[in-house]
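Quick one: structure for this chain?
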Amino acid sequence: MDGFNLRHLALAIALSSSLGTAFAATNSDFVDSAAAGGIAEIETSRLALEKSQSADIKAFANMMITDHGKANDELATIAKKHDIEVPDTTTLVKQAKEKILDLRDESFDAAYANNQVKAHEETIALFKKEAETVTDDKKPGAVELKGFAQKMLPGLEKHLDMAKKLQAAHPSK
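Got it. Here's what it folds into:
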């Protein structure tokens, strides 16, 4: 894989950090962070389908696109029901594509696997914080967002376990 292709790997960890997955203080912050992280997962996984030749990477990438797409749809439905603004998908995708890391020392597969681990660790921390928050019934959507976070955690933890297996199968050079 040449340097040009490696530089075009938009990694979820960079996207998550730059798009604000710091721990959410409000429902809107959680929605923004969760949506941004979901878009980052989808975009990096689409790139993995293009660039990787590994069947396990491609299978994982397809699962990320499906699972995070469904989660983002569910999150958008909850947000809309409670008049919580959801970041525009087009804007998030544009931001995701602008956040590109230079990865000269790693293969695409190793970089993708390593960053899937990091991104899922950060996402799990975000969702655990939301799931464990004392619910303020007066905040629009608070109860549903807490339930959403609780519902998503087992799947996110499964994704992390799978990403760690990919990381072991595709070590950095």
